[in-house]
Specification:
Largest sheet: 8 strands, mixed
Structural class: alpha/beta
Number of strands: 19
Order of helices and strands: EHEHHEEEHEHEEHEEEHEHEEEEEEEHH
CATH superfamily: Metallo-dependent phosphatases
Helix content: 10-25%
Radius of gyration: 20 Å
Strand content: 15-25%
Number of domains: 1
Distance between the termini: 19 Å
Length: 413
């Protein structure tokens, strides 16, 4: 059974921006001091106004027969990192379709089983998705609509984060185009982290599943040096406006049982955490975040519990790496799928996160970046590792990278 679309509500709140430079490929460490992360372009008065905006017209609800049953107050939550679609991936998907669209099944088929029982499945869609622009690859990514159709209809992702550094690769026109794609082709999907206008930005995305309400917030560190002019009215959410982010996370904590924050932060193709990741995580959990899904470094990093001021525990995936990509760095071939359960006491509304884990996956391909696909670590072999395109891998190398994940959370299945 694919991830379920149960009940979706858009509620009012404010959101903002944090810009630096870094790109999916070669990168530098652009470190941010805590003192550099306090400035914003939206005043406290504007924030307060945004937070008190009447949301009576902004809320939409979809109900299903399942809602008439007593809710279980238990949610299976699964998340994946960067879905980074290089030309090798979409060119071969086009060839496999024999001239009739695209066939992406080969890329993802070995990962499908990890999403079958998910109630909520979250993906960072690292590229814009639209058929209004020609497909393109690094450094300016644009993926055909068939990518989005596959990850929703076949894998079962029902929540899409758009908070990443490639959202402006085709300019603001590309941003509008990908918003049009998600809103028209998949209106049942929660999308967040990039917005059509201020009113759209001020709606905190929420989803109620099995009696538990989740809120979703997303922030990107930068957009590869591409300025967001906002001439078409769109709004983005950058990380350095911490005054606004504090207001937003606290508001989300008021209206939802579980606050999910997706920050696109950290140094690319580096396994170790940097100060920015640790500093932001400390603030986000202090303000009310319960689950953090980090992306941007393109390789698997640490995950762990983080104690909140009220004594409860948040869970942090600092970086899940790539869901799939055609990158040429060995670290970028090693990613993970996050998996956990959320339970709520219906009387006290106390939230408990249970059995968090990372399921390691490999982006594997042959010579000349051919036949890119996701292969679970549990199915990977030394022969496959040695045959990896660009340069050979080894199981020992993969195991060394996976040591960044605490053993208690590493799940080989």
């Amino acid at each position: 059974m694919k991830a379920k679309f149960i009940k979706t509500t858009l509620l009012t709140c404010a959101v903002m921006s944090f810009s630096l430079m870094c790109a999916c490929g070669d990168s530098n460490d652009h470190r941010i001091k805590p003192s550099d992360m306090t400035s914003g372009t939206q005043t406290a008065q504007t924030i307060e106004s945004a937070l008190t905006t009447d949301d009576s017209t902004a809320s939409t609800e979809t109900t299903t027969p399942e809602e008439s049953a007593e809710p279980s107050y238990s949610v299976h939550f699964v998340c994946a990192g960067d879905n980074l679609i290089h030309n090798y991936i979409y060119d071969e998907a086009r060839a496999r379709a024999g001239g009739n669209g695209y066939d992406f099944s080969f890329v993802y088929e070995k990962a499908l089983k990890y999403f079958e029982d998910a109630d909520i499945a979250v993906l960072n869609q690292e590229t814009i998705v639209t058929d209004e622009f020609e497909p393109s690859s690094y450094p300016g990514f644009c993926s055909p609509g068939a990518v989005g159709d596959y990850v929703v209809d076949e894998i079962g992702f029902n929540v899409i984060s758009m908070a990443n550094n490639h959202i402006l690769d085709m300019g603001e026109e590309g941003l509008v185009s990908t918003l049009d794609y998600w809103d028209t082709r998949h209106p049942e999907v929660i999308r967040y982290g990039a917005y059509r206008d201020t009113a759209d930005m001020e709606n905190i995305r929420t989803m109620e599943v099995n009696g538990i309400k989740f809120a979703f917030l997303g922030y990107m560190q930068h957009t590869n040096g591409i300025e967001h002019t906002g001439e078409l009215g769109t709004r983005l959410v950058y990380l350095n406006e911490l005054d606004t982010i504090e207001q937003q996370i606290k508001k989300a904590d008021e209206i939802a049982d579980v606050v999910v924050v997706s920050p696109h932060f950290g140094v690319e193709v580096q396994s170790e955490l940097n100060e920015d990741q640790q500093y932001c995580t400390s603030l986000f959990t202090q303000w009310g975040a319960d689950i953090i899904i980090g992306t941007q470094p393109h390789t698997i990093q640490e995950c762990n519990w983080y104690e909140k001021p009220d004594g409860s525990k948040a869970f942090v995936y600092y970086c899940l790496g790539n869901f799939v990509s055609g990158m040429s760095n060995k670290l970028a071939w090693i990613g993970g799928i996050g998996d956990l359960y959320v339970e709520m006491d219906p009387e006290t509304h106390e939230i408990t996160i249970k059995d968090p884990k990372i399921i390691p996956i490999i982006s594997h391909y042959g010579e000349d970046y051919s036949n890119v696909q996701i292969i679970p670590y549990a199915e990977y072999t030394e022969d496959l590792a040695q045959s990896h395109g660009y340069e050979p891998l080894s199981m020992d190398y993969i195991d060394d990278v996976l040591k960044h994940v605490p053993e208690e959370f590493l799940s080989i299945e």
